[in-house]
Amino acid sequence: MFILRKMIKIFNSYISFISIILIKIALRFNSHKLCGFILWLNIKKVKKIKNKLDNTKKILVFPKSGGFDDLIESFAEKKNTIALYLLPREFLKEIFWFFINQDNKSNIGDYFTKLKTKKQIEKKNEYIKFLTLSFKYINNFLKFDCYISFNLFYYAEKYFEEVCKNLNSKFIILQKESIFTPAEEAGALKIYKESNSKSKAYKVSVYSQSQKRLLVESGLINKKKIIINGNPRCDYSFKLRKFKPKGKTIVYYLIESNRNKNIFVKNKKINWKKLYNQTLQYIIEFARKNPSYKIILKGKNGVHKKHDFNKINLPQNCFFIKDGIGHKLLKDATIVIAFNSTIVLETILANRNLIIPNFNNENILKKRFLLSIKNNKYFACNKKQFIKKMNNYLKLKYEVKKLSKDDLKTLIYYTGNVDGKSGIRVQKFISGIYN
User: Fold this and answer.
1) For the chain, domain boundaries
2) Which H/E stretch holds residue 389?
3) pLDDT tens track for 52-69
4) Looking at residue 170, what DSSP letter applies?
5) Could you give the CA distance from residue 205 to residue 405 in angstroms, rounded to a whole number?
6) What is the CATH number of domain 2-232+420-432?
């Protein structure tokens, strides 16, 4: 099965490569029909989502990890009047850069979508016109009622909202980026305001009040168009509350040492390398003394690599995992060790024992650069506390606990999901655009 999946992946990569070449040819000859035909060949129906045959609405999605998981969580469990189709984002990017050529693109990218020169605006209009004709051609084979993107600030999809108006279709955003530290919130608001133009999207779904506030304050979109539905991926975590973890498994979601070096915060002095090394050292020591426990070191794709551990003699009960959806590991986790990431919130929602490393008083000294976790019981402020918490949690009998007031405040602020029903809300949100 693994070999077959690998072969399918290679085959799909080959098809994408050939398709991109053909798209370039279509652009050179200004052939919207050839472009539309190539795009149509690369559109795939989502088979995981069952739909009724009567009155089915077709929606084309420009997929992005995380956001697409939200859709699957929202629609997978029952038959719907919605049929989802996917078109890889790379095709829109290729077409976009053909029109906004090398000489004009120096100031354009994700979160920096505002066009500043007359030439850029002229090229944008050509891009919109070409895509409109291409998708009108696609409508001869497969007509879509709606189009979905996962971020207001993806440069190649930003102006697709104008294509949709030409097609008399809806363009909606399921905004997946919304969990920011206080420093990131300040940086995001500045970039939203200064580097982006007003959105013409039909509706925007956001996770939480915090993200809605940022969008409203930026002036990019009318607040009546922004709907808070919560994070559908957190529905899975909420469902886990009823299930006792199997065995004795500890999952450490590896710390991102350079989390604060991103487009919103560029503080070179703030990093988590010391904390990363301390946490890893303490876990390895614990693993050697407790060989009967399984310890998973979960890395983030593109951040952590297997060769990072080549110089470390990992105990046999320690396993490094890079691929796969991180929150799925919560199911069998007796203890979760995590820091300054979404998985902290998902762990709280899943009723799993959480430890947040805080060996250097990070939650006080570097507060602006951390997610605001209200409940102090999760913090381990030194090695002794860290080991003690692990030993105590491994002895505890599993019981479903109510979310505390502090936990509720944290989850509402960041995820907008404390009831496991965000998927239902997103489903109603999408279905509701046709009513």
Assistant:
1) 2-232+420-432, 241-414
2) helix 383-395
3) 666 788 999 999 877 777
4) E
5) 26
6) 3.40.50
Calpha distance 77→421 (Å, rounded) = 13
Instruction: Please tell me the predicted confidence (pLDDT) of residue 103.
Output: 58
Split at pLDDT 50, 70, 90, the class of 100 is confident
The C-alpha atoms of residue 407 and residue 373 are separated, in whole angstroms, by 8
Sheet holding 318-321, edge to edge: 318-321, 294-298, 249-253, 335-337, 353-357, 379-380
User: Is the CA virtual torsion 72, 74, 75, 79 positive or negative?
Assistant: positive
Read off the pLDDT of residues 342-373 as tens digits, 9 standing for 90 and up.
Answer: 999 999 999 999 999 999 999 999 999 999 99
Q: What is the pLDDT of residue 266?
A: 77
Q: Are 344 and 356 in contact (CB under 8 A)?
A: yes
User: Phi, psi at residue 74, to the nearest 5°?
Assistant: -80, -30
Alpha helices in 89-239 (DSSP H): 89-99, 118-138, 155-158, 160-167, 182-195, 209-218, 233-239
DSSP string, 34-89: HHHHHHHHT-EE-TTS-B-STTPEEEEE---TTHHHHHHHHHTTS-BSEEEEE--H
Share of the chain above pLDDT 90, in %: 72
| β-bridge partners, 85 | 45, 60
CATH architecture for residues 241-414 = 3-Layer(aba) Sandwich (3.40)
Q: How much is the pLDDT for 177?
A: 79
For residue 65, the model assigns a pLDDT of 75
Structure tokens at 378: 């999760």
